[in-house]
Design goal:
The chain is about 35% helix and about 0% strand. It is built from two helices and no strands. It is globular and about 30 Å long. The N and C termini lie far apart (about 25 Å).
Length: about 40
């Protein structure tokens, strides 16, 4: 069974973390949850 995880990183590192996750764990589903409109989509 899989369980959700939350990774909190500084805004300046989001792109790097996303790229590294895709590279080392391509089976993961990733969601970049940032920006001014994020409360509307929760």
């Amino acid at each position: 069974a899989t369980r959700p995880s939350l990774v909190i990183v500084p805004k300046s590192l989001i792109f790097n973390w996303m790229q590294e996750a895709k590279r080392f764990a391509p089976e993961l589903r990733l969601l970049n949850y940032t920006g001014q409109e994020r409360t509307d989509s929760a």
